[in-house]
Design a protein that fits this description.
mainly alpha, 3 helices, about 80% helix, rod-shaped
């Protein structure tokens, strides 16, 4: 049961991190679309290249941090030992 809970927490964390990156790319695509519709195609291409080369943190950081927290909880849940309460 402990392993199943840890795997589910880990998958939820990965999903949250993936959502953060996908949402960031969707926001970038909206900005690029606005730039391209205004007739400045070179600026739109430069915006995409700058985003890729900068390696910046996604804009939806709350999901990123929440996903990392879930992953950390999954790992800690697997590592911690259950205490034996044999003392009266």
């Amino acid at each position: 049961m402990k392993v199943l809970v840890s795997v589910l927490l880990f998958l939820a964390g990965l999903g949250s991190v993936a959502y953060s990156y996908v949402a960031s790319l969707v926001n970038l695509a909206g900005d690029v679309e606005q730039s391209a519709l205004s007739g400045d195609d070179a600026s739109a291409f430069a915006m995409v290249v700058d985003f890729i080369m900068s390696g910046e943190v996604p804009q939806v950081t709350s999901y990123l941090y929440f996903g990392l927290l879930l992953i950390a909880l999954a790992v800690v849940n697997l590592i911690r030992r259950r205490s034996n309460k044999t003392d009266p």
